[in-house]
Amino acid sequence: MFQVPNMLFALPEMLMLGMACVILLVVAFTGSRRTEWVYGLSQLTLLATAVVVVWFIGDGGLAFADTYIKDSLSDLLKLFICVVNMLVLLYSQAYLKARQLLQGEFFVLAIFSTLGMLIMVSANHMLTLYLGLELMSLCLYAMVAMHRDSGVATEAAMKYFILGSIASGMLLYGMSIIYGVTGSLSMNEIALAVAAGSGDETILSFGIVFLIIGVGFKFGAVPFHMWLPDVYHGAPTAMTLFIAAAPKIAAFAMIIRLLAEGLIDLQHHWQDMLVMLAVLSMIVGNVVAIAQSNLKRMLAYSTISHVGFLLMGVLSGTQEGFAAALFYTLIYALMTLGAFGMILLLSRQGFEAENIDDFKGLSERQPWFALMMLILMFSMAGIPPLAGFYAKLTVIKAVIDVDLLLVALVAVVTSVIGAFYYLRVIKVMYFDKPVVDHKLEAGSVMQIMLSANALMVLGLGIVPGILMKICSIVFA
Amino acid sequence: MFAELPLLSVLIWLPILGGIVTILLGDQRKVLKPFALGIAAVTMLLSFGLYTGFDSTTHQMQFVEKLPWIETFSIFYHLGVDGFSMPLIILTTISTLLVVVAAWEVIQDRPGQYLAAFLIMEGLMIAVFSALDAVLFYVFFEAMLIPLFLVIGIWGGPNRVYATLKFFLYTFFGSVFLLVALLYLRHVSDSFAILDFHNAALSLDEQFWLLLAFLIAFAVKVPMWPVHTWLPDAHVEAPTGGSVILAAITLKIGGYGFLRFALPIAPDASLALDWFIITLSLIAVVYIGFVALAQTDLKKLIAYSSIAHMGFVTLGLFIVFDIFANAATGSGAVLAVEGAMVQMISHGFISAAMFLAVGVLYDRMHTREISAYGGVVNTMPKFAAFAVFFAMANAGLPGTSGFVGEFMVILAAFQANFWFAFLAATTLILGAAYTLWMVKRVFFGDVANQEVQALCDINRREFWMLASLAVIVLLIGVWPDPLLDVMHASVEHLLTQVSQSKL
To answer: Is B165 in contact with A420 (Cβ distance < 8 A)?
Structure first.
């Protein structure tokens, strides 16, 4: 019997799709003359979507023949994706303008990519998930390649595209195996089939291997991390910021939908695989970051190590662990936003503040923003009373509660190693004399928002309870 | 009205907020120094309220405040003090006031941020001593590293970057294991309250690993041999204020950690491993004493003497097991733990005084090499009187506070094992040797060179700064009873906890 699907569940996506088409038309008719209009429209789209998400918060369920889900997890993640991308666009504007990259296409790609993320977040079906993932990824490839004249950017785009495609292929292969065994692509039906023990577990575990390879690629977990430093380094910083922040939130949704909802009963299979990924990511990420002199590359390796921490929450397989990983993801997005935002803030016409040495003596030239960067770096290192500490605390607690004490020990020891390179940034800012002038070209809105961003990291460190509670309610 | 006041919260947040205001005052040098001084003075006066309002008949936590903080994990903003933490808090507030006074004319580069760092440090340290929730404790324990890292890195000597990174990474490495231990204890006891940890039932294996984690965390802080190497570097490079706070208080947090965590939570493992910690303590006392003898840098010498003195603290805490094994009565054990506590407080004041004294010399001569001095008594007689007095206290002269703690621990050690006492007592010789030799080379003899000839004696500010410390050191030395009284009930309680096996 035909049922009218509950369109309201997908209202944010529909709104965004409609607006993306409008923006596309505006771009087509105004060319590069009216980029500020396009910028405003894009921000408006994100804001409107966020408002719609908040408006319909609460009630949830399945729609579109069970391929689509709206629950408190999707609400929370969508809200964060929209807010994070609003900040990304805000931080990027001046930077892109100075490099003649502020073209309408950027905004069109950004909005479409955001749409892909939203679809991933709401996917209850492997095909929906895949569709969202590809929509997001293809836009990201194009964004990296937008700086056509730059050799590094083109190389990064190529690498990103090829490795990303391989990852997608792996993911599809894994999905097809799961489909072969359980006879379904829908998450709940897969979960039911697995719980009933109807499929061969060996074959299912093969499927899981490929799924995890795919997810590992998208996250940038070791040993599938090779693309990440090159892309972060090669892409224009604004694009790096875009890739680094919101897509990780979407990737988190992907891993939760696949493993925690679809394949939770096979936890004993995927737990060990994730332990390997997490431990390797933390070690490689933190150790290799020490050797980097380029801040973007350093942050890329730091991302790898954060992914390792985040996976610790997921691999614990408990509701509390998923909540911890969610908390970690959100805090990570906030910190990354701030750190790359700081690079964007200090860059100006013809000068990229992307080497660690470019921050020399920042505390004398720009004491306020040096303090903000100090907060962000200490937070990434996991020093209380900053938000990054509670993120680490919750995931470490999650693994200790499932008796994976060794993983917890690896985590804390590597975080000491990690502290070294974050401290080096602080050392450069506070203990060295300035060599370059740190004039700011960015507008006051960006300065205020960036400060708010960093202060939020401090604020969430003093009162982390509320966000933690929200995260645990999502998985309750 | 005074009873209603959440005194501990005020003590924690007043200096922290004061510090933030001091940063915001920025370059208004005229205002910010009196302001910082005022905050430090008010905090100190308020902290005396802890002493006057303290009930020394009970080991229960007093001035308790408990508010929910992170409800998801039932983490509380839970504060309270007992006989161990209360004296340490007063030590903290007094030291901070002295640091502010010591910085008055000396710090020219960004004085606001310097004073702010110490005010914020003060709040954090008081919070460490009064936190009764494990996460709260850990948060403040770690947060303390940030201001100290900046203080050494910004206002330190030529090799400051190396020293401050070493300091940070060393202590951070130690404390992450503490985090794992605390989370494990939470897993076992289903609570984050430190007092609930004390009652957690733990097998010997669990206790062993927990004790190891505590040992790594707190041994680095104390610091015990062989993880002490960060301390001389940090001290030499730190500005005077940094050295004072480092020696007077952060080292005590290590000793406090043993009292609050290691002994009551893992008594059986402590019993099993006491020989190990006693050995390390005796090595600290004897070997580091010799190392101190060989130093040519004033601050390094005091740094090494700090390590040797802190050896008495860990020795006093862990010989109680041998005393229990030997003697029927527990009086020797009480002596040992109280001796360790007195030693902590007294070392806090004496080392602060010694570093301030070195600071006075350094401000005038800009060198800490012992060989650059000689005959200082001729040009700075008032200062020399103070310095010699503090040196004597450092060597454990009877009548000063330095004598009380060491004597109590040595006395108790005789009830444990003659050789422990014998080795510990060598400090009376070694300590006298390195301090008196230093005094001879720096202060006595003929005037060594032109610079010494040109020295002018201490001004009023420096005089009162040193005089107040001298009074405290004498007071504790001749009349330690008020100090012993407040901690007595807590020591008795600790010893009952320690003597009861958890197995």
So the answer is: yes
Joined tokens for residue A396 = 């470490």
Write the CB contacts of B122 (distance below 8 Å, at least 6 apart in sequence).
B15, B40, B43, B92, B93, B96
- Which tokens go with A235? 């892409």
Q: Is the pLDDT of residue B135 over 80?
A: yes
3-state secondary structure of A348: strand
- Nearest Cα to A332, choosing from A362, A363, A311, A318? A311
pLDDT digits (tens, 9 = 90+) for A301-322: 999 999 999 999 999 988 999 9
Identify all chain B residues contacting A396, using CB atoms and an 8 Å cutoff.
179-180, 183
Q: Which residues of chain A neighbour B146 with C-beta distances below 8 Å?
A: 378, 383
Mean pLDDT of chain A, nearest integer: 89
| Mean pLDDT to the nearest integer, B303-315 | 90
CA distance A245 to A143: 14
Closest chain A residue to B176, measured at CA: A412
Q: How far is B51 from chain A (nearest CA, A)?
A: 29
Burial of B148 (0-12, 13-18, 19+ CB in 10 A): buried
What is the largest distance, in Å, between two alpha-carbon atoms of chain B?
A: 69
Nearest CA in chain B to A388: B139
For residues A302 and A282, give the distance between their C-alpha atoms in angstroms, rounded to a whole number. Answer: 9
Q: Which residues does chain A have within 8 Å of residue B138's beta carbon, measured at their own beta carbons?
A: 384
Q: Are strands B75-81 and A61-63 parallel, antiparallel or unpaired?
A: unpaired
Q: Is B300 on the interface with A (CB under 8 A)?
A: no
| B residues 186-215 closer than 8 Å to A (CB) | 186-187
CB spacing of B180 vs A408 below 8 angstroms: yes
Rounded average pLDDT over B380-396: 89
How many other CB atoms are found less than 10 A from the CB of residue B55?
A: 10
* Cβ pair B183:A416 closer than 8 A: no
* CB of B111 closer than 8 Å to CB of B117: no
pLDDT band at A1 (very low <50, low <70, confident <90, very high): low
Q: Among partner residues B146, B150, B183, which is closest to A400 by beta-carbon distance? A: B183
Instruction: Express each pLDDT in B103-117 by its tens digit.
Output: 887 777 788 888 899
For residue B226, cis peptide bond before it (omega within 30 degrees of 0) = yes
Whether B151 contacts chain A with CB within 8 A? no
Report the distance separating Cα B277 and Cα B219, nearest Å: 10
B402 in reach of chain A (CB within 8 A): no
Closest chain A C-alpha to B135 CA, distance in angstroms: 9
Give me the phi and psi of B77, to 5 degrees please. Answer: -85, 90
Q: Can you list the positions of beta strands (E) in A79-134?
A: none
Full DSSP string of B434-466 = HHHHHHHHHHSSS--SHHHHT-----HHHHHHH
**Chain A residues inside the 8 Å CB shell of B68:** 465
From residue B317, give the alpha-carbon distance in Å to each of A414, B171, B467. Answer: 32, 22, 31
The ipTM estimated for the assembled molecules is: 0.89
Confidence of residue B330 (pLDDT cuts 50, 70, 90): low
d(CA A437, CA A150): 26
Dihedral angle at the C-alpha atoms of B459, B462, B467, B470, nearest 10 degrees? -140
pLDDT for residue A47? 95
Chain A residues lying within 8 Å of B70, measured CB to CB: 390, 464-465, 468
* CA A313 to chain centroid: 16
On the question of pLDDT at B256 being above 70, the answer is yes
Q: For residue A3, what pLDDT band results from cuts at 50, 70 and 90?
A: low
Q: Taking CA A373 as the corner, what is the angle to CA A372 and CA A374, rounded to the nearest 5 degrees?
A: 90
Q: Is the dihedral of CA A393, A399, A405, A406 positive or negative?
A: negative
pTM: 0.92
